[in-house]
Design brief:
Thrombin, subunit H; four-stranded antiparallel beta sheet
Length: 398
C-alpha cells in the first residue's frame, strides 16, 4: 500500500473524504489535484493551486470541479488546465459541490449555482453559511446552513419553496433525496446541552415531516437511501438500517470507527470502521468481510473495483470475487523512502471489470460462510511517485 509522502519526509498528505472515478481515472485532492489511471495508479496529470484541495472533486462535462482556498475551479479532465474559476467565500473546507444537469451547486459563504461549462453564475443564496453539499432533485435544491436552518430552494432561480428555522441541532449533515423524500441528519441541540441525534424524513414538495428517528447519540453520518431502507452510522459505532417509509429500525450492527456515510452496492453496505473497511449484508446486518485499512473514508465503486481513500493512501479492492481475506500486515505497513518507488500491478480486464493480482497475498479467498461480495486486491501502484512534487504551486490563478 503506497503512502502519500514525499522524499523529504514532510507530513503525510491528508486526503478529502472521497475520490471520484470517471472514465478510467481517479481524481484525488490533497496539496494538489491528481488524476491517476485506475489500471495501475500511474499519474495522468497534476494540477497545482495556491491552496490545498481539501474537498472531494466533482466531475462533469469533461471538467473536474473542485474547491481550493476561497475559490472554486473547473479544470480540464484531459490535462488539468484551468478553464474557469469563481470565488466561493471563506468557510473552511466545505463539502463537495453537487452537479445536476449542466449546473453545479457550490457550498461556501453562500450557496452558488454556476454553469458547468462556462462558470457563469446563475444565482446565489445567502443564509448563514453553507458548509454542506446540497441535494438536487425534481427542480429543488435542499441545503442546511451553519445555524440549524434547512432550506428547499428553486433550482431555477433560487427562490424559497419551504424551509425550517432553527432545527434542534448544532450540526446538520448533508441532505439526501430518494424518490419523494429528503433525509437530513441532525446532531445535538444548539446550546450544546444534549447530544441526541435525529434523522428527519421530509416530503420534498411540501416539507411536511414524514417521520423522525431519534434513537442515537453523538455525531451521526449523512443518510444513505437505498431501496426500501436508509442507512446511517453514529459515533457510538452503530450502523443502523431504517425502513425508508416509516423510519422503523430494521437492524443495527456495531462497526467501531468514524461517522463517514455508508454506501450501498449490490446488496452490500460498505462503511469505514476503526482501521478497517467493513462490508455488511444490507438485508440483515451480518458482517460479510473486513479489510485492514488505516482510517478508511467514503469509497467509490466503479466497474467492479472499490477505491478507498484513507488519510494518505488510496487502495483499489476487487469486486465480484468471493468474500476475501484481510490484507496482510506487510501490505499495509509504512514504507521507507527507498521503497516508495512506482510499481506495476498485473492487470486483467474482462467485460469492464478490473481484477488485480501481484501475488498470493493479493488474491481473494473463500470466506467461512461462502458468501460472495467484495474482496481486497492490489493497492493502486505508482501513487507515491506521482506525488513526489507535492510542493509545486501555481502562482497565477488566472
Amino acid at each position: 500500500m503506497k503512502r502519500f509522502e514525499d522524499s523529504e519526509g514532510l507530513s503525510p498528505l491528508a486526503l478529502p473524504d472521497s475520490a471520484p472515478v470517471v472514465d478510467g481515472t481517479v481524481y484525488v485532492g490533497g496539496e494538489d489535484l491528481y488524476a491517476l489511471r485506475t489500471s495501475d495508479g500511474s499519474q495522468r496529470w497534476q494540477a497545482g493551486f495556491t491552496n490545498d484541495v481539501e474537498t472531494t472533486p466533482a466531475v462533469a462535462n469533461g471538467l473536474v470541479l473542485v474547491e481550493s482556498g476561497q475559490t472554486f475551479y473547473a479544470v480540464n479532465t484531459t490535462d488539468g488546465t484551468k478553464q474557469w474559476h469563481q470565488p466561493r467565500g471563506t468557510i473552511p473546507r466545505p463539502d463537495a459541490a453537487t452537479v445536476a444537469g449542466d449546473s453545479v451547486y457550490v457550498p461556501g459563504n453562500d450557496l452558488f449555482k454556476f454553469d458547468v461549462d462556462t462558470g457563469t453564475k446563475h444565482w446565489q443564496f445567502g443564509p448563514s453559511g453553507v458548509p454542506r453539499s446540497p441535494a438536487v432533485a425534481d427542480g429543488r435544491v435542499f441545503v442546511p446552513d451553519t445555524i440549524g436552518n434547512f432550506f428547499a430552494r428553486s433550482a431555477e432561480d433560487g427562490s424559497d419553496l419551504w424551509h425550517y428555522e432553527s432545527l434542534n441541532g448544532s450540526k446538520l449533515k448533508a441532505p439526501a433525496v430518494d424518490n419523494d423524500t429528503v433525509y437530513l441528519s441532525v446532531t445535538g441541540d444548539r446550546s450544546g446541552a444534549a447530544d441526541l441525534s435525529i434523522i428527519n424524513a421530509f416530503d420534498v414538495a411540501t416539507g411536511s415531516v414524514r417521520w423522525r428517528y431519534g434513537g442515537t447519540t453523538g455525531e451521526i453520518s449523512t443518510v444513505t437511501p437505498a431501496g426500501n431502507s436508509v442507512y446511517v452510522k453514529d459515533a457510538g459505532g452503530a450502523l443502523i438500517a431504517l425502513d425508508a417509509s416509516s423510519g422503523k429500525e430494521r437492524w443495527t450492527t456495531q462497526v467501531e470507527g468514524a461517522t463517514d456515510r455508508p454506501i450501498v452496492v449490490n446488496g452490500v453496505v460498505l462503511v469505514g470502521g476503526a482501521d478497517q473497511l467493513v462490508a455488511v449484508d444490507a438485508s440483515n446486518g451480518d458482517i460479510r468481510w473486513t479489510a485492514s485499512l488505516q482510517k478508511p473514508k467514503v469509497p467509490a465503486v466503479v466497474d467492479g473495483v472499490v477505491y478507498v481513500p484513507t488519510d494518505n493512501t488510496i487502495t483499489a479492492l476487487a469486486h465480484g470475487a468471493e468474500a476475501s481475506e484481510t490484507p496482510s500486515e506487510t501490505e499495509t505497513s509504512n514504507q521507507s523512502t527507498s521503497e516508495r518507488q512506482t510499481q506495476s500491478s498485473a492487470t486483467n480486464e474482462t467485460e469492464g471489470n478490473v481484477s488485480r493480482s501481484t501475488d498470493a497475498a493479493d488474491s481473494s479467498s473463500q470466506s467461512s460462510d461462502g458468501a460472495s461480495g467484495f474482496g481486497p486486491a492490489a493497492a493502486l501502484a505508482g501513487i507515491a511517485g506521482a506525488l513526489m512534487d507535492r510542493r509545486r504551486r501555481v502562482a497565477d490563478e488566472d
